[in-house]
Amino acid sequence: MSDTYAMINGGFILKNEASLFISDLSIQRGFGIFDFFRTVDHKPIFLEDHLDRFYFSASQMNMEISLAREALKKQIFELIEKNSIPDSGIRITLTGGYSEDGYTLSKPNLVITQNAFAFNKENFEKGIKLVTYDHQRQLPQIKTIDYLQAIRLQPFVKENHADDLLYHDQNMIRECPRSNFFIVTNNNEVLTAGKKILKGITRKKILELEEFNIREEEITLKDLENVKEAFVSSTTKNVLPVVKIDGKTIGNGKPGEITRRIYDKICLLKEK
Amino acid sequence: MSDTYAMINGGFILKNEASLFISDLSIQRGFGIFDFFRTVDHKPIFLEDHLDRFYFSASQMNMEISLAREALKKQIFELIEKNSIPDSGIRITLTGGYSEDGYTLSKPNLVITQNAFAFNKENFEKGIKLVTYDHQRQLPQIKTIDYLQAIRLQPFVKENHADDLLYHDQNMIRECPRSNFFIVTNNNEVLTAGKKILKGITRKKILELEEFNIREEEITLKDLENVKEAFVSSTTKNVLPVVKIDGKTIGNGKPGEITRRIYDKICLLKEK
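^ inputs. structure came back:
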């Protein structure tokens, strides 16, 4: 919407007019971190988990974030009040800042944006199709702005009649560019990679569910040939069944029973 | 200088005021490519080589650059004339463009900037100190804006009393973040990595020199223990002796004889 506001370094600005000078290290060197969470009925979902990860990412990248956590929360709530968009996605981005020589670490710029976003339950029944690709993300546990491969490969995904990528590191399954990946084995075990991935907040909530046999475990490309169900998890997708991988149908090509039960649990935690 | 101009999508703008909207994919997703060349006495050095690589990078990233090569050159020469900075560095950056959803590939933004830069011969006698780090750059042959590791590790470089990083991929020497790396063996062979690196333009000119025994060859961390000389090459550094690696002195800690001869040849090609 044209009257939606963003916040840059604590000041409101119309989102459509918000800009950064080209000396910013995000533009010069792809250097920045971010986090992304939703609001439902004006209330942030799992905010503390997202802030934990945001400050972790900043510290791992040696970025000085002068804003204390409570002050950052205050800015977030100010933006929520100003925009008055009940159901939304909020992105907090910390860039490398304006650097005189375009290289040296500088005082970061903090950009907070909000978009209307309502969770669409219909996507669940459709599920998504993935295409595998050999790529290990650098600094995987840090939520950096680096999506070079994912953006570059958008035509590749289309050519393969898929909706998204599934990265593997020389046959070890990792994650999708913006979501975590799970399989359900024929023994009803729910498995997800534990190493060299971004640890998603929805993933964390799934791992905490007690009524399933869920654990972190190395999954290989070959393991995919014999899974009962597969799904991805993310802040916007909640839990989304994977119906095809590399053109091969998973299970009967419909959302599986355990996937559906996990989805219901996660929706209970998140949605109105 | 405050009256230096930049060019964004063909239009002049004061460099200090040049900005991109925050929906640009460089800010959202670290997605962009660039190239960088020098002018000496208003003349671009090795421009065709740099443009070759720039268009190669764009095509590899699936970026649509609508501007034909001759039109891009025209913009570059317009900027050179407008700014009238005889000795400079010119950077052409192509970002992913303004993306409505912050993810989908869009029409790229082209940003051209110019900085005064004069080559400093005194740096040669001092040389530089490197510290090794295990990191394989992603998409190494494409000149993307991704310098996440290099920027993040700036404090690490300082703590190790070094000037720059030397990346190796599980003991196979690759390159520095912004320069290529060469060794001179005790048999006066000049070796540089040929795989999984960015192929620098100065590096290319060095490999074309006929009076030396130069070739691409895998170099291991262990090989560094027994080298006679080492140096790096780049557009701004030309050829710069490496006097220490991980605190260990290379040769006698002074610029070596073959390094000096290669340096002289490269300066002849580039400098007034």
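Chain B has a mean pLDDT of 97. The domain at 122-270 of chain B is CATH 3.20.10.10 (D-amino Acid Aminotransferase; Chain A, domain 2).
thumbs up if we can close this ticket
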